[in-house]
Amino acid sequence: MLKERGVPDFPGMLKPRNRNTIASMKSVLKIENLCVAVAGKPILKGVDLEIRQGEIHALMGPNGSGKSTLAYVLMGHPKYEITDGLVTIDGINILELEPDARARLGLFLAFQYPVTIPGVKVADFLRHAISNVRNPDRKEGEGLIPMREFRKELKSKMDELGMDPDFARRYLNEGFSGGEKKRMEILQLAMLRPKFAILDETDSGLDSDAVRFVSESLSRLIGPDMAVVIITHHERLLEFNKPQQTHVILAGRIVENGDASLAHELHDQGYAGVRSRHPEVAAEEQQPDASPLQAAAPAAPA
After folding, report:
1. pLDDT in tens, 143-167
2. Which domains does the chain have, with CATH numbers?
């Protein structure tokens, strides 16, 4: 647990000992003893993770283990109750912030089931989103990124990703196929350039060609200024994005950490070996309940 606390700049900001040293370092997303419940039922039971800019992490686990719960808690979904723990980005306690403030700090979530927003064009959505992220102090109604600059950047990113320009004139996810929705998530990622991107089973429901597009596109976007957490059951998204660290979550606890070879083992052999090595945790597994997200999916943060 971090000890020095205070609110010098942001609500929930932990005062660093040396600001110059902190500024010269890569940003860090730190999760400490995170415990989460839904309707009184514990889901996450003391999760610890540390993710630095530029790193690729794979988070794997069986259904109902808490993978998506972790993703949505980090982004601020209101259905979840934080019962203990701390999550910080560079000393700022993001659990005290609204989802839009978390996005402004550099956090991004690619949804497993992207929501449809009728009447809002892709280009308009992206222009407002990147204006808010790049100018965190911007108030609603104030100036957006200049149109000429925005169009030039959007065209460049769409060309890089091999996307039809007409895509930007469509309403957000309305009438999109599963593959098009995931392409939209990747386009957001390319335009927003977050410090920390969480991909919640982005390969779910996609055919082989669509998965390959997502995997290759992601590999072009990842760099020293972006960390990526890939939540997945398979190796398909990891084909072009080899993780430096692989984490296995079981019954709400991270029980194993390794490199890309651990992800390969899980893909080939499943979770029987993990359960046999951690029988006490495996005994806590229950049949997954209906997620509150199925009842009310959150809007994408801008």
Report:
1. 899 999 999 999 999 998 888 999 9
2. 53-78+98-114+176-270 (3.40.50.300)
